[in-house]
Amino acid sequence: LEIVLTTLSNQYFSDPLLQDVDIIRQYGELPELNCFPIHLNQALFNILENAVQAVKVVALDNVKPQINLKTHYSKSSSLIQVEIKDNGPGILPENLPQIFNPFFTTRPVGEGKGLGLSISHQIIVEQHGGHLSCQSEFGKGSCFVVELPC
């Protein structure tokens, strides 16, 4: 996650609206993961990029933007869990079932291609045998959970 955050900070955090983003890290001990690291970093980058765009919206409303990052390992299920939660505007309930579809976007025309979450889903689910889910409450933010077998 730190590599992804560094890449994002070079790209986004120079924006005055994003300079005060609180990034709260709660990293647990994780075992080694047999994965395609470049692809997995791309998947996490896409999810985090959406979180950054979401908190930018609340920053416009003078709300302190916040992104929570949490990692956890469950020995009983042999799963690594990565949680990315933001306090952005959330996703409308009718849009939630479509967010992993290719070319679906909630952004205005010209501001997004609608491929980021679709690609993340493909990398996590198809390439790594994991699971990607999203819980969102409109007006309160979204939480993406990545689960990867190890």
Rounded Rg: 15 Å
Number of DSSP helices? 3
Which strand order spans the largest sheet, edge to edge or round the barrel? Answer: 1-2-3-5-4
Question: Average pLDDT value?
Answer: 91
Choose one word for the global shape. globular
Low-confidence stretches: none
Taking the alpha carbons of the first and last residues, their distance comes to 17 Å
* Beta-strand residue fraction: 25-35%
Order of helices and strands: HEHEEHEE
Main pleated sheet: 5 strands, mixed
Structural class: alpha+beta
Please tell me about this protein's structure.
With 150 residues, this protein is of the alpha+beta class. It has a five-stranded mixed sheet. Helix 1 crosses helix 2. The mean pLDDT is 91.
Please give a handful of descriptors for the protein shown:
globular, five-stranded mixed beta sheet, alpha+beta, 25% strand, 150 residues
Helix and strand topology:
Elements: H1 2-11, E1 22-26, H2 37-60, E2 66-74, E3 79-86, H3 116-127, E4 131-137, E5 141-149
Parallel strand pairs: 1-2
Antiparallel strand pairs: 2-3, 3-5, 4-5
Helix pairs in contact: 1-2, 2-3
Nutshell version of this structure?
By secondary structure, the chain is α+β, with helices and mostly antiparallel strands. It has helices spanning 2-11, 37-60, 116-127; strands spanning 22-26, 66-74, 79-86, 131-137, 141-149.
